[in-house]
Amino acid sequence: MRDRDTVAAALDGIDLVFHQAAYGGYMPEIAKYVHVNSLGTAQMLEVIRENRLPIKKIIVASSQAVYSEGAGNCPKHGLVFPIVRPIEQLRKGDWQVHCPLCGAITKSVPTPESAPIGGETVYGLTKVDQERLVLLWGKQVCIPTVALRYSCTYGPRQSIFNPYTGVIAIFCTRLLNNLPPVLYEDGEQTRDFSFVEDIARANLLAAETDKLDGLPVNVGSGRGTPIREIAEQLADILKIDIAPEINGEFRPGEMRHLTSDTTLARSAGYKPTVDLSEGIARYIDWIRTQSDIRDYFGEASEILKKKGIVHRVKR
Ligand SMILES: [Zn+2]
């Protein structure tokens, strides 16, 4: 994405663009995210314009990371959009999400596309850039565009060498090395998981229908699963009796809960077909065919603590 000639060569003879390339996860870099994700996307649009390429549509991979925190329900105020939890709160080990209006503890509810975006990590910020760049540029030049905000995506061939992203892959490699998966906070934070094939189907749907043109669209299962359950389910299927480890670590800027409100995608015909248990089983079938399953997390975890990406509760 950073090399103009490579991007031009990739676009040659193409009329439909699925822009998936990105630098992802919780890496300590800052400039590389902006180079690859923000600048790379901006450059791709320039190449399309300068070469007058006959592009009919662009689908760009965005992310749920564009949100600050998942939507909540306050007993007094109903649907609210809480801000990111302050680091001072997390340092005390208070993981709850409080109502921005009255401070009451909120209950997680599905997050609609209308929730405020901004991103609370460098990665999230660059995903906002990517989707805003593509959507607004598309309107200027009259090319239909769609930004798909993926939930946590997993599946066969997800890198087992990247210890910074993909909780299912990371937990699996820990367990297969007889090490406990490390849960941040108390492990009760929830995420919405999408099997990679369903994400691919969402891309094809966005290309075929015009109902989503010009819009950011959540793609997820619509169901939140606690991270602790993922660790336990994996240990169960792998028949490795190792309990997850919780040691008061947390990542500032990370959301507590995020479940995608998929009403918009479903209204255009989207329907996820692989549920979490089937998806995990298929992922494990694949990972068993891999010979080099080393644990990279232990080393990465130390780097993240040194660089201030991972913190620990002060007791
Ligand atoms: Zn309230």
Give an overview in words.
It is built from 10 helices and 15 strands. A 4-stranded parallel beta sheet has the order 1-2-6-11, sandwiched between helices. Strands 4-3-5 form a 3-stranded antiparallel beta sheet, with no helix packed on it. Helix 1 packs across helix 2 (31-50), helix 5 (167-176) packs across helix 7 and helix 7 crosses helix 9. The model has no long low-confidence stretch (mean pLDDT 92). It is an alpha/beta fold and 315 residues long. It binds zinc ion. Zinc ion is lined by residues 74, 76-77, 99, 101-102, 104.
- In CATH, what is the homologous superfamily of the largest domain? NAD(P)-binding Rossmann-like Domain
CATH topology of the largest domain: Rossmann fold
Number of helices: 10
Strand content: 15-25%
CATH architecture annotation of the largest domain: 3-Layer(aba) Sandwich
Cα-to-Cα separation, first versus last residue: 44 Å
Note the main attributes of this structure:
315 residues; alpha/beta; Rossmann fold; 2 domains; 4-stranded parallel beta sheet; 10 helices; binds zinc ion
Topology diagram in text:
Layout: H1 4-11, E1 16-19, H2 31-50, E2 57-63, E3 72-74, E4 78-80, H3 87-91, E5 107-108, H4 122-141, E6 145-150, E7 152-154, H5 167-176, E8 182-183, E9 190-191, E10 193-195, H6 196-208, E11 215-219, E12 225-226, H7 227-238, E13 245-246, E14 249-250, H8 263-267, H9 276-287, H10 297-306, E15 311-312
Helix pairs in contact: 1-2, 2-4, 5-7, 7-9
This protein binds zinc ion.
